[in-house]
From TrEMBL:
This is GNAT family N-acetyltransferase. PANTHER family: GNAT FAMILY N-ACETYLTRANSFERASE, LD18367P. Residues 4-164 form the N-acetyltransferase domain. InterPro entries: Acyl_CoA_acyltransferase, GNAT_dom, NAT_camello-type. Keywords: Transferase. It comes from the Bacteria. It holds the Pfam family Acetyltransf_1. It comes from Herbaspirillum robiniae.
Amino acid sequence: MDDIHIRRGYLPGAIGRVAELHAAYFTENWSFGVYFEAKVATELSAFLSRYDDLRDGFWTATVHGRIEGSLTIDGQHAREQGACLRWFIASDKLRGQGVGDALIAEAKQFCRDCGYPSIYLWTFEGLHAAHHLYRKHGFSLVEERIGSRWGVKVNEQRYEMPLD
């Protein structure tokens, strides 16, 4: 698709659209519900309300101006704990077209440029395409535990990647 654009920074409607993308995918495929959508919208809103362009990253992938993917780097505690990768998603329209790969590459470069020691993320077992991308980019699975941070009991997984 030639009309895919990856942009850094807030776009009007981003909070609602990123929450919608997450809710649609995870409800259809994992039976998540309103708790999860509200959690994404609330936490993404809080993040963007304190967003610092020098410390944090928020990327969107758009097609004809419509957000079809996203990835966030929360750098608030990055120097002590590593940068936190969150809200990584691509719509059905973009899956398999290299957009996720490009979003992760942008985020890694940003974290390197900021001098962050590492990047980490929480996900859960079964998201094979995303896990493949994480491993491809140098992340390793370092922890697993049963939990319900997404409103449904799943095998939560923490991936980490040191930055050299």
